[in-house]
Each structure stands twice: as structure tokens, then as C-alpha cells.
């Protein structure tokens, strides 16, 4: 189908020239497909079957793909940039609550705030700003 969408060369004058052109094009396409399907084949002798109690979903969930790893790394680097750009108190709130996993009461005390509710408000604003900045790029 892709071949029919392309314009044939202008030097094709006879029907036999067109047939030769189409024949060569189909032959080249078949070669390309053959190369594609031979590329990167696994050695079937080295394959091991999975235990019966493991499903395909379990296997896929175990290992991220290389592109997922790269995307995750890029997203994490962007997250660090966004957190570093926050105002000092908001940055401290995010680090204490989300990275160090301190409870709100402890965070409020460390930041010299009057109550855990005031800290939670500060944290909510910091996380909202972080989310907005993460979605900007």
C-alpha cells in the first residue's frame, strides 16, 4: 500500500518498465521485512519458562523498561529543580513531610509554627505550587 502512495519515477515508459519497478520495490520491501524480523531474536535454547504461579502481569510489573527508567529519572530531576525553586519555608515543609516522613506535629514544631494545622496549610500550598510547576514543562 505504501508503494502505491508514492509517485513512480518519470522514466518508466512502458508497462514492462512499470512491472519491473513494482517487482523490484516489492522485493526490496520483503527484504526489509525479513531483516526486521531477524533482528534482535532471542536464543530459544536459553529461554526458561516461568513458574506456573506467575502471570504475565506479575512479570511486567517487576521490571520497568529502559524508557520508563529514563522518563522517571528526568521527572525526578525536574521535581528536584522545582522543589529547590520553592520559597525556603515551603521547601523545608516538603522535605520534612515528604522526604523525611515526619508527622505534621513534628514538622510544625521544627519550623516554629503554632499548630500542625498551620503546617498542613503550608505544605498544601507548597505541594500545589510544585504540581503546577511540574505541569508547566
Protein model, in words:
The protein has 137 residues and is mainly alpha-helical. The protein has a domain at 88-137: Arc Repressor Mutant, subunit A (Orthogonal Bundle). It has helices at 2-5, 15-38, 56-62, 66-84, 88-99, 104-110, 116-136. Helix 5 (88-99) packs across helix 7 (116-136) and helix 6 (104-110) crosses helix 7. The longest helix has 24 residues, at 15-38. It is elongated. It starts with a helix and ends with a helix. The model has no long low-confidence stretch (mean pLDDT 83).
Weakly predicted, low-confidence segments: none
Write the CATH architecture name of the domain at 88-137.
Orthogonal Bundle
Could you name the CATH class of the domain at 88-137?
Answer: Mainly Alpha
Number of strands: 0
State the helical fraction: 55-70%
**CA-atom Rg in angstroms:** 30 Å
Q: How many helices does DSSP assign?
A: 7
Strand content: under 5%
Overall, the morphology is: elongated
The fold-level CATH name of the domain at 88-137 is: Arc Repressor Mutant, subunit A
Mean pLDDT: 83
- Topology as a string of helices (H) and strands (E): HHHHHHH
Biggest sheet features = none
Class by helix and strand content? mainly alpha
Distance from first to last alpha carbon:
39 Å
Detail the topology: elements first, then pairings.
Elements: H1 2-5, H2 15-38, H3 56-62, H4 66-84, H5 88-99, H6 104-110, H7 116-136
Helix pairs in contact: 5-7, 6-7
Amino acid at each position: 500500500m505504501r508503494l502505491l502512495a508514492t509517485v513512480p519515477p518519470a522514466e518508466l515508459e512502458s508497462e514492462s518498465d512499470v512491472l519491473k519497478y513494482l517487482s523490484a520495490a516489492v522485493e526490496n520491501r520483503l527484504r526489509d521485512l525479513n531483516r526486521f524480523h531477524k533482528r534482535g531474536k532471542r536464543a530459544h535454547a536459553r529461554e526458561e519458562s516461568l513458574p506456573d504461579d506467575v502471570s504475565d502481569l506479575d512479570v511486567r510489573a517487576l521490571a520497568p523498561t529502559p524508557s520508563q527508567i529514563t522518563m522517571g529519572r528526568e521527572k525526578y530531576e525536574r521535581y528536584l529543580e522545582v522543589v529547590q525553586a520553592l520559597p525556603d519555608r515551603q521547601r523545608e515543609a516538603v522535605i520534612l513531610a515528604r522526604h523525611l516522613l515526619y508527622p505534621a506535629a513534628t514538622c510544625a514544631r521544627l519550623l516554629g509554627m503554632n499548630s500542625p494545622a498551620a503546617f498542613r496549610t503550608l505544605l498544601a500550598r507548597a505541594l500545589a505550587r510544585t504540581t503546577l510547576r511540574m505541569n508547566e514543562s
